[in-house]
Amino acid sequence: MLSLCYWNHSVEVVLFLDRRWSLSELPLLEPLLLESEWSHVTGVLLVEWSHVTGVLLVKWSRVTRVVVSKIKSRLLFLAIVASRRLWNRIIAEVSVFGLVSLRWC
């Protein structure tokens, strides 16, 4: 579900994105985020393994930390990126291309 790949001496994070979930659901997760130490979270991806619609590759140098948690049957990925601008660009790319990139390890 979350894998780290070494490719040309860089580490990439592979996240599986289900487009049925949207950022509009973030208010439901606010208590979880407030209780955690991740005060600088700029993005959240919600996925269900049985409904994978895309794969997102993020350069590790642009991501400071990634947390995987589970809420009911959903897997929650907290992708902590350098800036909201970068996060918005990532979301835009996924929206446009769906499957951005895929490299098997």
In short, what is this structure?
With 105 residues, the protein is of the alpha+beta class. Helices cover 19% and strands 39% of the residues.
Mean pLDDT: 44
Count of helical stretches: 2
What is the distance, rounded to the nearest whole angstrom, between the alpha carbons of the first and last residues? 13 Å
- The radius of gyration is 13 Å
The SSE order reads EEHEEEEH
Helical content band: 10-25%
Label the structural class: alpha+beta
Number of domains: 1
Strand arrangement, largest sheet? 1-2-4
Low-pLDDT residue intervals, each spanning 5 or more residues: 1-66, 94-105
Describe the fold and architecture.
With 105 residues, this protein is of the alpha+beta class. The protein has one domain (3-25, 35-97). The protein is built from 2 helices and 6 strands. The strands form 2 sheets. The protein has a 3-stranded antiparallel sheet, with no helix packed on it. A 3-stranded antiparallel sheet has the order 3-6-5. This is 609_t:CDS:1.
What's the layout of helices and strands?
Elements (H helix, E strand, L loop, with lengths): L2 E5 L2 E8 L12 H6 L7 E5 L6 E6 L3 E9 L2 E8 L2 H14 L8
Antiparallel strand pairs: 1-2, 2-4, 3-6, 5-6
Keywords:
105 residues; alpha+beta; 2 helices; 39% strand; disordered N terminus; disordered C terminus; 609_t:CDS:1
